[in-house]
Amino acid sequence: MGRKVCVLMSSYNGEKYIKEQIDSILAQEEVEIYLIIRDDGSRDATLDILENYEKLDNVSLIKGENLGVKKSFLSLIAIAPDYFDYYALSDQDDYWLTDKIISAINHIEGAGENLDDNFLYYSNTCLVDENLFPLNEKGYNVDRPYNFGEILIRNCASGCTYVFGRKLKSLIQTRRDVNIEKIPMHDHWINMICLATGGKIIFEKKSHILYRQHGENLVGSQKNSFFKKVIKSSLFKKTDNRYIHANSLFENYESLITDCNKETLCKVTNYKNNYYKTIILALDRYVKPRAFLSRCMIFLSVLRRSF
User: Fold this and answer.
1) How confident is the model at residue 294 (pLDDT cuts 50, 70, 90)?
2) How far apart are CA 118 and CA 200, in angstroms?
3) Which residues lie below 8 Å from residue 108, measured CB to CB, with a gap of 6+?
4) Secondary structure of 48-75 in the HEC alphabet?
5) Whole-angstrom Cα distance, residue 276 to residue 273?
6) What local confidence, expressed as pLDDT, does residue 139 receive?
């Protein structure tokens, strides 16, 4: 058998698509898959479906109370055994191509990473409709991975494509008591931790996952006009989400953050101290999104102190 991979899935009212997703995970080629599913208090037939899979030797089911998706995934990472070669995250409603995991492993090991190194692999996704027919949408797909400055603004990666090793798993679970209200979504948080602590991003442009869009799960198919983007931005919302997330990262990982990244992070955590530091962050060339419109909105948001 190939590398041992622990796939972590959080489920909630996923009866419609979860069987198809699980079957695609168990059909992965050239690797030894072990699937741990934590049900987050489903009220539909999800548990009935999962209990049938629990009979398999390589599937484990945890029936939990409703914690919400962030805490559910972080708790899964915390309890996953440490003896696997790799760990992967899975949504409940996508479809994995049979080479998804082995392609990730080939990219990781091709980049010279050892099993105990700090790394995070992710790829682009192929957006599909509820029947797995491709959509003519880009979604969150990018040409290159985001650097640390960019990731402080927004996440470019889909957690359902993540593959990482024991080192990053250990870094995530060392802060089990993190205030869940002060961190971004779990996949964004994991990306922040990896980069802040000097980890390496391994990015693949090609997609090996059909990222299903349905109901409220729509990500890439909503086209917003210029004015809608402006209205939805922090210019019209007095929020401090990025500031709060940056402070949480600093408070939980200060001793592990590289000096260079600590300097960048402090520009965000200290930008409200006085107007000089506000201007420093507003003019910083590293803590910036890529699109010109987004850069303008971030610049104004910083000046407004709603970063």
Assistant:
1) confident
2) 6
3) 86, 119, 121, 163, 165, 202
4) HHHHHHCCCCCEEEEECCCCCHHHHHHH
5) 8
6) 65
pLDDT of residue 220: 44
CA dihedral 294, 153, 231, 129 (to 10 degrees): 90
Residue 222: is it exposed, middle or buried by C-beta count within 10 angstroms (0-12/13-18/19+)?
A: exposed
The C-alpha R_g of the chain, in whole angstroms, comes to 20
- Residues, the chain: 307
Spatial contact of 262 and 193, defined as CB atoms under 8 Å apart = no
User: Which two tokens mark 117?
Assistant: 């190194």
- Cα–Cα distance for residue pair 92/15, rounded to 1 Å: 9
Q: What is the pLDDT of residue 174?
A: 84
Is residue 288 within 8 Å of 280, Cβ to Cβ? Answer: no
Report the C-alpha gap between 307 and 98 in whole angstroms: 41
DSSP label at residue 234:
G
Strand partners, 139: none
**Which run of H or of E encompasses 79?**
helix 69-79
Q: Which amino acid is at 189?
A: W
Pairwise CA distance, residues 88 & 199, whole Å: 17
C-beta separation of 213 from 219 below 8 A: yes
- Mean confidence (pLDDT) of the chain: 91
Tell me the per-residue pLDDT of 231-274, one tens digit each, with 9 for 90 and over. 555 545 556 899 999 999 999 999 999 999 999 999 999 999 99
Tokens of 291: 């699109």
